[in-house]
Specification:
The structure holds 2 protein chains of 2 kinds. Helix content of chain A is 38%, strand content 25%. By secondary structure, chain A is of the alpha/beta class. Chain A has a single domain, classed as P-loop containing nucleotide triphosphate hydrolases (Rossmann fold, 3-Layer(aba) Sandwich). In chain A, strand 1 and strand 2 form a beta hairpin. In chain A, helix 3 packs across helix 4 and helix 4 crosses helix 5. The longest helix of chain A is centred in the C-terminal third of the chain and has 16 residues. Chain B has a single domain, classed as MetI-like fold (Orthogonal Bundle), CATH 1.10.3720. Chain B is 82% helix and 0% strand. Chain B is flat. The N and C termini of chain B lie far apart (51 Å). The relative contact order of chain B is 0.16. Classes of the chains: A alpha/beta, B mainly alpha. The complex binds adenosine-5'-triphosphate (ATP) and magnesium ion. Magnesium ion binds next to helix 1 of chain A. Chain A: Belongs to the ABC transporter superfamily. Chain A: This is Amino acid ABC transporter ATP-binding protein. Chain A: It is a peripheral membrane protein.
Chain lengths: 240, 217
């Protein structure tokens, strides 16, 4: 369970998160939508401790993400994150990209790590590409590799930040299919996306962010069908 | 073929000079690169403000002509009675000179590694050391390589300035032979050829590594 309690966060004078309260249950798929600069990415990077927070707290399975006593690297093994940029490690093959963290962080042997990696690569449809370098992959393939890389750590939670935004339109589908598959497998996910019909399809709940505030949250039928908040209504009418 | 008074023992004399050039360059580039990596990482880690004193000192080594550094350095070590051999003084000064340039190369190369790539590494649970070792070092090395090869070749040639401290390296050895034999063009040609022979493998090593690393980008 991810518990976000009254989290505030500023970059200099700019307050980006203005007191966020949010709980994500095990197995839940939460989609976060909202305009540019509303704080969606910042929230995700706070959840796995890549960014510090000013006040409030974030608990992952009861562990305080930002507490000094927390072994953040150990906690991050539980929380996979995939970003908008592909972020392949260009000097490593696809297989090495995926085995790096299991071997170095989890201290797995090569054979065991490769077995897991190959399973994950097959899962995202990249089994044949394991020995090529990322530069030989399409954007969609690189993004699926990034997903496999995160999954190879056997995380309990997956965070996705606009993973299809940098892709050519014809490549978006393959990545969304991968996300859908994960959701169907019961993975707990928070995903930031601008793909509204996809959000409607996979989400258990949808949260709308506006200027650092979570303006509305509810089941997709409510958010997309009958939004209560004026800002939500406006945002949705603009993206449609 | 050539009508020359140059004897085998003269050639040995040149070879010994070349050996000295190689020794000074080898030590200076090795120590200078190691220091450059340490200083470069420190500069990136603590930021421009806190590293300002370090940057200032290194800027001195980059901007004052090497000859002046060598002469002043030698005078300084005599005044404070370090009792250094000219070889030691030469290596110390050249190492710092190399380190000053190498620091800039390292800093630039680390900065050129995309922060998003590093963030992805950290998000997988890699700690700072692992991120530096498995992600930043290999990527920065690829970026730094051409400049570092250029620096090494430069130091090889600049090392001739240690002749001012009385060191008999390749250029000084040639000068001595020229004075004695009065065959400047021929001897300088041989001297230049030896410099080329010393430089060529370094340049080729650069080309080889660049090629080996390039399909991975
Ligand atoms: N590292 C940073 N330093 C300073 N300001 C930042 C930083 N990261 C984000 N910001 C600012 O914080 C605000 C919120 O950014 P964030 O990336 O969380 O928005 P977002 O909702 O993800 O937007 P988008 O849909 O464009 O990705 C923006 O105004 C952004 O400029
Ligand atoms: Mg964003």
């Amino acid at each position: 369970m991810i518990e976000i309690e009254n989290v505030r966060k500023s970059f200099g004078p700019l307050e980006v998160l203005k007191g966020i309260d949010l709980t994500v249950e095990k197995g839940e798929v939460l989609t976060v939508i909202g305009g540019s600069g509303s704080g969606k990415s910042t929230l995700l990077t706070c959840i796995n401790g890549l960014e510090p927070i000013d006040t409030g707290r974030i608990l992952v399975d009861g562990t305080h993400v930002h507490a000094k006593s927390t072994d953040i690297n150990k906690l991050r093994c539980k929380i996979g994150i995939v970003f908008q940029q592909f972020n392949a490690f260009p000097h490593l093959t696809v297989l090495e990209n995926v085995t790096l963290a299991p071997r170095k962080v989890k201290k797995m042997g090569r054979a065991e790590a490769e077995e897991i990696a190959i399973k994950q690569l097959n899962h995202v449809g990249l089994g044949e590409k394991r020995d090529v370098y990322p530069s030989r992959l399409s954007g969609g393939q690189q993004q699926r590799m990034a997903i496999a890389r995160a999954l190879a750590m056997s995380p309990d939670y997956m965070l996705f930040d606009e993973v299809t935004s940098a892709l050519d339109p014809q490549l978006v589908g393959e990545v969304l299919d991968t996300l859908k598959m994960l959701a169907d497998d019961g993975m707990t996910m928070i995903l930031v996306t601008h793909e509204m019909s996809f959000a409607r399809d996979v989400s258990d709940r949808v949260a709308f962010f506006h200027k650092g505030v979570m303006a509305e949250i509810g089941p997709p039928e409510q958010i997309f069908g009958d939004p209560q908040n004026e800002e939500t209504r406006q945002f949705l009418s603009n993206v449609r | 073929m050539f009508d020359t008074a140059l004897t085998t023992s003269d050639l040995m004399f040149l070879a010994k000079g070349a050996g000295m050039t190689l020794a000074i360059t080898g030590v200076s580039v090795a120590v200078g690169t190691l220091l450059g990596i340490i200083f470069g990482v420190i500069r990136v880690q603590i930021g421009p403000i806190w590293s300002a004193p370090l940057t200032f000192i290194l800027d001195i080594f980059r901007s004052v002509p090497l000859l002046i550094q060598l002469v002043l350095g030698n005078a300084f070590q005599a005044i404070v009675q370090f009792g250094w051999e000219p070889f030691t003084t030469s290596c110390v000064i050249l190492s710092l000179y190399t380190a000053a340039y190498c620091t800039e190369i390292v800093r630039g190369a680390i900065d050129a590694v995309p922060p998003t790539t590093r963030r992805a590494a950290r998000s997988l649970g890699l700690n700072w050391t692992q991120d530096m070792g498995y992600i930043v070092a290999p990527l920065a090395a690829r970026i730094a390589l051409p400049s570092w090869i250029g620096l090494t070749l430069g130091v090889l040639k600049d090392s001739s300035l240690v002749l001012w401290l009385g060191m008999i390296e390749l250029l000084r050895a040639s000068q001595i032979l020229i004075t004695r034999l009065q065959e400047p063009l021929f001897i300088l040609m041989i001297c230049g050829l030896i410099y080329f022979v010393l430089s060529f493998p370094i340049a080729r090593l650069g080309g080889y590594l660049e090629k080996r690393w390039s399909p991975n980008d």
